[in-house]
Amino acid sequence: MTSQVDKTRSDTVLGVVCASSAFLIWGVSPVYWKALKAVASFEIILHRIVWSFVLLVPLILVMRRWRDLMDVFKNYRNLLILLFTAVIIGGNWLLYVWAVNTDNLLQASLGYYISPLVNVLLGMVFLKERLRPPQILAVLLAAAGVLLLTIYYGEFPWIALALAISFGLYGLIRKTAPVGSLVGLAVETFWLAIPSLAYLVYLDSHGAGSIFRVSLKVDLLLMGCALVTAIPLLFFTLGARRLYLSTVGLLQYISPSCMFLLAVFLFREPFAKAQVVTFIFIWTALAIYSTDSFRYYKRTEQSP
Fold first, then answer.
1. Is the residue at 172 inside a domain?
2. What's the predicted TM-score (pTM) here?
3. Is residue 7 assigned to a domain?
4. Cα pseudo-dihedral 24, 181, 218, 267, rounded to 10
5. Residues 6 or more apart from 6 whose CB is under 8 A from it?
6. pLDDT of 176
């Protein structure tokens, strides 16, 4: 009995370490993308897609997931779903890298802070889920924060909302394809890799491509985009399997918190009073949402 408890505890600790590492890598990744600021955001994403696919194929072989990959290619429904999600996640990646390299990291962090609340709304709209009172309050507070920022600046925070909505839609649609995250990403990058590679060849033939033209550092960083994509995904998969959904939900705030700190203290993005108030609204909403989620899952676990 004691050994079983110890095994469960060690599994939980390993899960927390793996999931935290994934969210931490995603959170500090703006430093990586900033190092590629000399390269157009669109070209960065093309390289991210191609090199990720190149890395994922041998990774799937090593992890003995080749049969799972082949099963996806035999299922036209799952293939089409993953084509759709590939377009969505590709657009999300592009917008995120562009936001980082145009000094809009604060908006990006705001987007990933409100992402869980967007998921709640998407569940209500598409899955007919009923919201609990604390969830309604959290969504209203987040909406008030976004509205305040819009009124103060006279500009809608479209980057934050586009990132949150695209990521939410990606998660929602991916649930309809019963495919593991690693295999799913491999198929998504497969769909995107063909046109991406074709366009990179076109750029190179016209002397406009960055790889092998700027510097060795840029070449290595472009190839390394695959590691920035695959490594945190593997950590997240290992962690999520060992943790309750409520725990993963709390750990996910590591990423936008790192982005927020980088934007304010390292990249010195403007942080006006209205933004301070908006983030206070969002943080309060997330505190309410997280507390409610934690209590809800606790009650669910205890019920017979």
1. yes
2. 0.90
3. no
4. -30
5. none
6. 86
